[in-house]
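Forwarding these from the shared drive since the link keeps breaking.
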Amino acid sequence: DVPKVPDSRGDSDGPRRGSLCERHCAAINNVQGDLADLGCHLHRPRIPPATSTPPCCQQHSEEVCESCLVKTTLTAENAVEANKLSNNYKFGFKKWKSHVTARPWEDRSEIVKELYSDLNVIRGSGGSTLTCGNVLYLLLFGWWLSLLYVLVAAVMFVTVMGAPYGRLCWDLAGYFLWPFGKVIQKVEVPKSHQAREADVGESSALLRGPTPRRWRPQCRVGTGHWQGASTALWLCLAYPVLALAHGLVCVTAWLLVVLIPVAKLSARAASCVLLLPPERLLIRRLRMTEVPLEGEVILCCYSAANPYYYKYAVDGINVFAVNLLPLVLVTLVLGYVDTHNHLTGSAVKFTLALLSIMPLSYYIGMAIASISAQSNFAVGAVVNATFGSITELTFYITALIKGSREGNRCYAEVVKSALTGTLVGCVLFVPGLCMVIGGIRHQEQRFNSRSAGVSSALLFLSVGGVFAPTLFSKVYGKLVCGECHNVTQNPLGHYLCHNCHFDLMDNNGTLYYSHVQPLVYTVSILLPAAYLIGLFFTLKTHTHIYDIHISDCHMPGHHHSAVVHWSRWRALVILLLSTLCMSACADLATEHISPILTNSTISQYFIGVTVLAMVPELPEIVNGIQFALQNNLSLSIEIGNCIAVQVCMLQIPILVLFTIFYPTNFTLVFSDLHVYASMFSVVLMNYIFMDGKCDYFQGTVLVMVYFILLAVYFFAPSPSGC
């Protein structure tokens, strides 16, 4: 998504710094993809010849090139993007792919420029307009929109005084039936009228101009044109109907994303074309028009669909997050207005609440990345530690509160399943999927094995600490079975027992309150302490393990002042509002999950491990896939590892702390299935990541193991208490 930048790596036959430098080169390629999207360039760990040293670095050649021997030197577009890029490689910070500042227009690729271009540019003749996207427009919108214009034209002709507008509607009926390869012009006005219109400005962008900015009306017409009864009849009778139709087309096409050009077409037609007098409009076919055209071009469309519109952003927000935002409003209105389920059932409300978590997670992530990139290290660390796990914790706490009020232990078991599902999914599914998708484009991908080793060590420690109370209860607890039958009809023979579990409340709960509970509190103190040590190790004393250095040398043409999408205060407000909406959606999800848990034939284990665990992590999964496609597998792996570490070292201790002040049914004793699945996943992940390189086959192994574990959870019986 950036133009080619000059190579500053020096000649290929330049001297190297022995085998030590070659070992440092192994981890360099991990960050190339992220740099390419940031408009950065990369210095290889070699000593460039004097003739190839960039002019901007001549005065610092000794220091910079010496640091390049052990680090990857990055040059970002501006200080804010450099700070965001640096935060991506810091342990405990949210990894964010999208830009937090506006990209310079000259650095955009031609594909992206096409997305934000105006529909008033005439291209050279070439290519047929008979494409699949244009045919789809005809089937979805063109035929009935054209028929509507024909009906409006007939009505205007009947009124006699509206005949000029009737002729205009007749011409527009043919245009909107197949607008491709046609042009709508605004005819030049006589010179006597030009002075009167000199102060009337017109903006050229539609929804989004050539540079990111807010949308504004596209065509403003002087009041001197609105004279006569025909104009009043048009504005009162015909224009509202046509504007409503174009509004419907605009909204529908925008939600379909790939048809955003149709949305632009309809928006401009309603805001500009239909507001101009008929005598100032001229509709022509491009093949019958000589270039240059006389008059201003208002509409000129060649294609109704563009598959690259998934990259489209509004004020830095991806178009999918924009389209899903109304879903949050619908969810909150239905959930808190229709309390008696007259309009929809619990299953629909639960699904809507769960889907609403996805865009809110995106906005929370964007806000965290924006605040961290514009703040110092201390503020960024506090924001990431406070709001980094807010999505999951909000749901878990609301579920535990509801279970405590109803006296239903099933909610606590679902929370444990969701915790385990997040751990297993982020250890197996997220890195495995990134390896598979990244391996399709790159034959072999390398990553920083030492930084991954830090996360792996913390994972071993956290998993051992989290499941220590469970193993303790297995050793010292009393096995109690609900139903036992004598198989051999012999009192000394074999018995077949069902619903067996280790009872920790024997002898009035002496084992639990005297031994297990103190162990849980001890573990809940040690795990956050270990997390803080890991932060101090990676961010203070051993920062060199990430091989990242942000240089102050900038390539010519790539040093721009930062124009942030969200200021710190705006990001903070969005963060707080998103967190509030997240709490409301989590409350609705837990409110309407009870019928699903009661009436569903699927195991509650499976619901917690899949739906409740992975849906909130979808924005993180998308970020990991984007990093992997850019050959930056290190960040893809770190995304999964950091989430898994935060689950064990932050989220679970916070839940234990919450149960101290608000007693619930949550105890840090997991079922055997959770223990075996988690430990096996961590061991397998460390085995795959030992050599610092991977391919799509190793990713396939991780994904297949994850699906096997899902099958085990699917066929497992429901936990006790559900």
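-- next protein --
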Amino acid sequence: QVKWKGKDLFDLVCRTLGLRETWFFGLQYTIKDTVAWLKMDKKVLDHDVPTEEPVTFHFLAKFYPENAEEELVQEITQHLFFLQVKKQILDEKIYCPPEASVLLASYAVQAKYGDYDPNVHKRGFLAQEELLPKRVINLYQMTPEMWEERITAWYAEHRGRARDEAEMEYLKIAQDLEMYGVNYFAIRNKKGTELLLGVDALGLHIYDPDNRLTPKISFPWNEIRNISYSDKEFTIKPLDKKIDVFKFNSSKLRVNKLILQLCIGNHDLFMRRRKADSLEVQQMKAQAREEKARKQMERQRLAREKQMREEAERTRDELERRLMQLKEEATMANEALMRSEETADLLAEKAQITEEEAKLLAQKAAEAEQEMQRIKATAIRTEEEKRLMEQKVLEAEMLALKMAEESERRAKEADQLKQDLQEARESERRAKQKLLEITSKSSYTQSMNSSTTALPTDLPSFNLISESLSFDFKDTDMKRLSMEIEKEKVEYMEKSKHLQEQLNELKTEIEALKLKERETALDILHNENASRGNSKHNTIKKVSESSS
């Protein structure tokens, strides 16, 4: 509305988002290439906003926490900071070394896709994602597939982390980057030397224009007595009166106003962190702890249900596999039985034929014997006839002998066939017995299968909409949660050590693929700081000690 003040518009945005930690945020706009923030007590249209419509404001974090995990209570607050910091890293407004970029990308993937599943997250699933700064990609002779492989390797290790947990891990790593949360302004000292002023949650820092990572001078908020400006001249008065007053000039009066706004807001938050939490913050933290405990219990319940479903499915699959195996065995037994029956029929038929042949041979042998007797009875008088007759008698005797031997052989063969037939029938009986056993097993397995297959449908439903959830947080639950938190702290220290080892390992692995000629000034400065063992916090501490 036309009469609305900045606070009215700001409150509307916060209510729409469900945001209660409003003190970190503001509405930003740009006027004449200079960033400005909407004042809460001034009418929106009375600001020096652009005249073209619609007027665009950006809802952004204006102040940053010292420790994201301790200070950011609401999940929506954490999510907004995650989105803003991620964009600043990808846009290279915050310098991030290559190995840390890969680790942060893996947490961003966990926040978006959930747990890694090789069946779902196949090669190329990150092809369209913007996960690494262009500076990092250009610095190495590595294909997108090679980057994806390294991001996925770390992504797979984050299994079990919910979206809010992955985003918080991202912020915990990002907050240790040298340029995190720092607002830079071009200034000149009394000698006219060009410098940079950095304003952040810890204090004021003076940088060389070519080195935004390591400050030359630092003024922590608790060591500053007064900050003021007159026209374009800005004055910082240290608490220790022995230390010289630091004066500098900015390019525009509007910039001085912005610097003072940021100084006041950061100083207020700095002092507020070192006091007891307000009642509102205490209530928010208590609600956040309860919500975290509830979500943890809900995740554990869902994990148990998922495990039970998977076990039921595995049991069902095993029973189905066993049933198929029994069906195959039954089919093979049926085929064996049919073969046995066919063999028995053939053997019976062959035995019958052999028996008939033996009878026929015996009949022929008897006829030959009769013929021999008749020939002997009809004796031929002449010698020649006698000789011929003797020869015929001899041949008849030999034929009779052969007939007798053949008859005996056929009889033995018939006996053997009878024995084979008996064995075939015994084999047939065994096959029928086995088939009967398999049939009884199959029916038992089917009944088991039907009862097991129905198991998953009886499990608790994943639908959380149909009924409201309520939990009573007893003292024992909170004590157990406290113990778990202490355990998590110990585990975090171990993980931090492991994390640093992993980062160093990745850095060594990809070092051979680096194109040295593409290193930026910030890359070189970061490597020098790393080789000296300098980090963001100990550098600021050393600088502030030396300046005092």
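The chain has 14 helices and ten strands. Residues 323 and 442 are 6 Å apart (CA to CA).

- D.
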